[in-house]
Amino acid sequence: MAGEPHLEVEGLSKSFGALRVTDNISIAVPRGELHAVIGPNGAGKTTLIHQLSGQLKSDFGRIRLEGADITRLQMPERVRRGLARSFQITSILDGFSVLENVALAVQARSGSSFRFFARAASEAALNAEAMEALARVNLIDRAHRTAANLSHGEKRQLEIAIALATGAELLLLDEPLAGTSHEESAALVALMQELKASHTIILVEHDMEAVFALADRVSVLVYGRIIASGTPAEVRDDPAVRAAYLGEEEAA
Amino acid sequence: MTLAASDTKDDAAEPAIENRRGFGIVSREGAAVAATILFAALALLPLLASAIDDPFLIVTATRIMVFALAALALDLVLGFGAMVSFGHAAFLGIGAYSVAILSSHGVEDILVQTLVALGTASLFALITGAISLRTSGVYFIMITLAFGQMAYFFMISLSAYGGDDGMTLWNRSTVLGSDVLESDLVLFYVVLAALVLAFFALRAVVGSRFGRVLRGTRDNATRMRAIGFSPYSYQLTAYVMSGAIAALAGVFLANQTEFVSPAYMNWQRSGELIVMVVIGGMGTLVGPIAGAIALLLAEEWLANLWEHYKLVLGVLIVCLALFTRGGIAGAARRLFRGGRHGG
Ligand SMILES: Nc1ncnc2c1ncn2[C@@H]1O[C@H](COP(=O)(O)OP(=O)(O)OP(=O)(O)O)[C@@H](O)[C@H]1O
Ligand SMILES: [Mg+2]
């Protein structure tokens, strides 16, 4: 079939004990789409990202990447097949330089890492590609800092640079804007707008302004279920969504 | 040159941060300088020994360097891989027994003995590491301890090779038919050369692609998986390398003491190696060498002073662990920086 979705999810579920956190989720994301997943706190968005990225095993359901079943693959294998994620709670290598954080992601897909003598930090090819990723998130001038010393917003940008540097064409971004300043957030929105030309993106985000500006389609997750899925306009006007989610915010 | 060519950190503006668990807190350059001074001092030690007419100094120093080599090996997994192996004495024992057993069958050449030692230790590390690395944290400690004790009890049960009593070597290993190692001075310089070589080789390894994956996994395994690395094979490789180097230390230990016994392999020995690495400074390479020197010298001196010296030693170790973050290497770095910046 020609129009095979980039990512196809069927009946995905995950329970923690008696709590069913994601419940029979099905989504199809065509290549090049930016698909936003929104929903109140605790809805199961991060759990869904964990399942899609392979960090968590799913109890039920299937995940297909470009038609190939990846349900049983581990996270590193999924990354090598072009599916990378960012973390809601910043997860970087604090003691490494910003450049090395990104260069490692380049290293992971550039030849063998069973090389024991040449100094990795001096590999010009890895560093040059890492610098390109840093340039996209405006962190060039921070490249030689220790990652722990970045501001919170800069760390969020570094998360994105690392995900980009994996070379993945499908990105799962878990609240990339959380905790960024107004300018940083505007820059990241502009970056995601650019990335839409080259990447398929699943974006979990609470910033509704950004979501409605960026998304081709939106799915609304409430208590682990998708209660609505469609274009931003359709979702905005959906009565169930208004009741369950958007309404709360407008009322607040 | 690309804009990314430089990899130096502007240390003056920004002191190297200590990562949460206190690994690797000295700079690369600092460690190399400290190690070079240390090695130079060791190389000159025989002069001092002859000046004060104390040949025993060389024997003691050789013994200390043997343990420094083993501690260095342990630092690769403990300090750079956050794998707390509590069974590393087994590798020391495998190296020592390779010499003793082969020698009892008339194979006295050190090259052959070393090859057998490295091969056996690598195989043992591959099998036990493959199993141990399926666990982590406290379980990893327990399971490596269990494998170490298995090796220990295996040697005790092997009565053909001395069992509990151990084996005495009739002579030291030969080098291509020559008995040069019978000289304590030659053995001293051979062990020093091995220590220097191991230090600079491991220094390259931890800075290489492989070492960067290992260090990254130590700091944040989830992050490494999320960029496409499966840490297991890297950790296992490090474990095998570490085991092989520790076995090399065992080859020298057998030659130094001319006696081999299961006591080299028991868990107290493994614990001592961990203490050397931790009080010296994990993940610094130079630290474990300093740690071995400090621990064994302290033991020697205290043992002369008081029969219950282990009590004092225990207190000293507790103080070091509590008050010097990053061990001796960390304390040295602070002292050096403090002096340079005027407090
Ligand atoms: N490892 C876990 N064990 C038990 N319960 C968990 C676990 N992880 C998440 N949960 C629970 O699952 C539910 C969904 O959590 P999740 O983090 O997926 O929500 P979310 O939609 O990402 O929320 P937020 O918008 O706050 O990030 C929550 O009730 C949470 O407490
Ligand atoms: Mg979340």
UniProtKB/TrEMBL annotation, chain A:
Residues 7-248 form the ABC transporter domain. Keywords: ATP-binding, Nucleotide-binding, Transport. One of its GO terms (molecular function) is ATP binding. The keyword Cell membrane does not apply. The keyword Transcription regulation does not apply. This is ABC transporter ATP-binding protein. Gene3D superfamilies: P-loop containing nucleotide triphosphate hydrolases. It comes from the Bacteria. One of its GO terms (cellular component) is plasma membrane. It comes from Fulvimarina pelagi HTCC2506.
UniProtKB/TrEMBL annotation, chain B:
It is a multi-pass membrane protein. The chain crosses the membrane at residues 30-49, 55-78, 85-104, 110-131, 138-161, 186-206, 232-253, 273-297, 309-328. One of its GO terms (cellular component) is plasma membrane. It holds the Pfam family BPD_transp_2. Keywords: Cell membrane, Membrane, Transmembrane, Transmembrane helix. InterPro entries: ABC_transp_permease, LivM-like. The keyword Protein transport does not apply. GO terms for molecular function: branched-chain amino acid transmembrane transporter activity. It is found in: Cell membrane. The keyword Membrane applies. It comes from the Bacteria. Its main location: membrane. PANTHER family: ABC TRANSPORTER ATP-BINDING PROTEIN, HIGH-AFFINITY BRANCHED-CHAIN AMINO ACID TRANSPORT SYSTEM PERMEASE. This is ABC transporter permease protein.
